[in-house]
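Please predict the structure of the following assembly.
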Amino acid sequence: MSAPATTLPLAPAAAAVPGTDACANRALMVGLAGIAVTAAGLFVSGARIVASAWLVGVTYWTAVAIGMLLWVLIHHIFDASWSVVLRRQFEHGLAAFKWLALLFLPLVLASLFYQTDLVWPWMNPAHLLPEHKSVASDLLYQKKSAFLNVPMFLGATIVFFLVWIWLSARLRRASFTQDTDGDTKWTTMSRKTAAFGIPMAALSLTFAAIFWVKSLEYHWFSTMYGVWFFANCARAALSCGVLITVWLLHRGDYRGIVNKNHLHSIGQLMFAFTVFWGYVTFSQYFLIWNANVPEETFWYNLREVNADGSDNQWKFVGFFILFGHFFVPFLLLLSYRFKVTPLILRRIAVWILLTIFVDICYNVLPALKDASGDPLPFLGPALFWSATSAVGVGGVCLWAYLRSFPTAKLIPVQDPRIGECLTHHE
Amino acid sequence: MSAQPYGLIATFDTASSLYHAAEQVRDAGYRRWDCITPCPVHGLDTAMGLKRSIVPRISLCGGITGFCTGMTLIWWTGAVAYPLTVGGKPLFSPMFAFPISYELTILFTAFATIFGIFVTNGLPMHYHPVLKYEHITRGLDDQFFVVIEASDPKYDRTATRALLEKAGGRNITELEP
């Protein structure tokens, strides 16, 4: 009976929509092209800059995939109904994990066999710090060395990818099998997966953020780091969810399936996690600012002033993140109309995905220092290779998603909550 | 008893008959009328032609007021009324004013929302003529009502009654003021 209230204003479906297979092939071509361009960067900017840029690209898309995993787990633990339709798309997105593991491999191999301190300085005990002492003789490294060592890094990274791949496989198998047999035992199984999967995913994403990104400046302390990464994961996955939803609405697949209340609910979650990201990121900055301890403040000082006291570009990147990553989406997502208008919500989602990329750059790239110990500027080769890396890894992830897309029904038709989902109301 | 009654009340047995009656009353251009239902009827707001509530705007005003109050409070107490350097920090910085501003944003938003809900619903309301209708308690149980108030510019004793009859209403009764 609420049909008139919930129809979405949409352009009529185009006469000839490209098939999913064609899209998948195109995505793979774009991905491989991005990877090839990034590889060519090795001869232009050198291995160190390109390796850090590659870390940006891999971390960014791993964050998207982890976020999708979290949303599927959270859906099951709450026995949610409205998000059944969205969940299926996230399940397809989880197909990217094994490729992400493969794409992470070059960083590990290069660190092991090419140059130990290529990305993470602490991996090489002989690495010289700016204050002209080696990592091995650095007291802070010695105190942290039980955690920060190569076997721990390798073991943890392998375990994390195995955890993510295994949880994804369980969730995907349960959901896709239920399409055919309609057995509710699959729902129960996924709920159990969620019960132990949420702590596993939370711990793995936290320590992945610490090992991969935070340890680039291993002197630093921050208890908020994992939560910061979690907030970005959740926001990135939701934004990708919006892009997928609007794409399927426009292609016509979701006609009569997704109504404006689904978009409203996604928009509300995007709003909530914008506030959450702001809260966490501000808390990290505020506590460090207030305590004013050199072992903590140097991380932000690096991103604000050079050794000679002049402002560097990262200061403005910081302000861009403050306003672009928090205030702009916060104010836009306050509006009900913006949340339920597909094209506007899609624009906000694209903006959030862009600012998350800048946020990851802000956390990774200042680890690249010039001869005087100042971070290399934001606008430079590292940003360009980060962008090509993100395109490369993103193309592969999109290909994995599109390749999984036709292997299951568009929506989980046999899910016990599918009826409630299709009639989702305010 | 005054000559002008409060309005007309009509009874409906099902949610869908009420829904379609609401659409007809809406399309006839009535403004001062309401539906009484024992349970939420999804989509009824659209069938009644109701716009979205203005309460979110009131909440936003409350939130902005709260944020400005927090910032002003910390600035005035710390930098104007009793300037005191603590921990080598400046007398005022939005940094340490932020937690209190954030809390007051939430507090004032909550106050404004509650206040907005009261005002837009006309609360507190200790008497309503509908309560005198002898079958009104069925509206808490299993029946649905449409009430059209006599103060509506389009109200006309016979035409309004005819509209409610055409819409399928039963037991159309005049309410005392």
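Residues 18-417 of chain A form one domain. The CA atoms of residues 30 and 395 of chain A lie 6 Å apart.
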